[in-house]
Amino acid sequence: MFAVKKNQVIITALVAMIAAAGYLNYIDSAPQKANEVMLTDNSDIALVGDSNNVAVTDDNPEIAVAESTTLGNTSSGKSEEKTTNDNKAEADSDAGAAVFVNSSTDTSYFVQAKLDREQSRAKQKDMLNEMLNNEKATSEQKNEATTAMLQIQQRIEKENAAEDMLKAKGFSEVYVRIDDDTVDVVVDKEKLTDAEIAQIEDTIKRKTGLPADKIRITPFKKSSK
């Protein structure tokens, strides 16, 4: 009886570790606390859309965004040391508004970002599969693992659908990542018009089901080097 209870405690702890691993992977892969985005006195804010407005910062090369994952080599365990992510920062906006900020990255951004995203998801799936294949796991625990696996797959499908739709609308490169309650969008264009911002917001809302205040839009700005 004691051995059975001990096994159930271990299995339950493993489920908690799986959930925490996905979150920690996101936290560890992001750059250490970049400078927060601030609007200077001469920065204008343009509001786009109907009830859900997109907050747009003025053209300021100093403003950058913190991505969901670090563009580093995750397989080496040294993504924190990768220097291709130049001073990124999270941008806050008013409730009901998607965040629009500037970002400066190199040309390998989209390839590396998508690779990191897939590696992160693969690790989460591996941990969930271990739970599903664990003979000591209860039916409830296996059901939870199955649900988590389904949620990951749904996120992947929504991300791909959003990227494909935005490409069809004329954006040459697009990166979308959905996390628990936010979605990050990067498009290969240095400047976005109000119409393009509204177009991106509308597409992401329809394809992901997330509201405008959970959407962070970043224009891709090529390095001047």
| Count of all domains | 1
What structural category characterises the helix and strand content?
A: alpha/beta
- The chain-level mean pLDDT equals 70
CATH class: Mainly Alpha
Main sheet record = 7 strands, mixed
Secondary-structure element sequence?
Answer: HEEEEHHEEHE
Beta-strand residue fraction: 5-15%
Number of strands: 7
CATH superfamily label: Stage III sporulation protein AH-like
Level-2 CATH architecture? Orthogonal Bundle
* CATH fold-type name: Helix Hairpins
Q: Helical residue percent?
A: 40-55%
Low-confidence stretches: 29-95
Short description:
With 225 residues, this protein is of the alpha/beta class.
Q: How would you describe the overall organization of this protein?
A:
With 225 residues, the protein is α/β, with parallel strands linked by helices. 43% of the residues lie in helices and 14% in strands. It is built from four helices and seven strands; from the N terminus they run H-E-E-E-E-H-H-E-E-H-E. It has helices at 2-29, 109-132, 139-168, 194-208; strands spanning 46-48, 53-56, 97-100, 103-105, 174-178, 183-187, 215-222. Strands 1, 2, 3, 4, 5, 6 and 7 form a seven-stranded mixed beta sheet that branches. Strand 6, helix 4 (194-208) and strand 7 form a beta-alpha-beta unit. It is elongated.
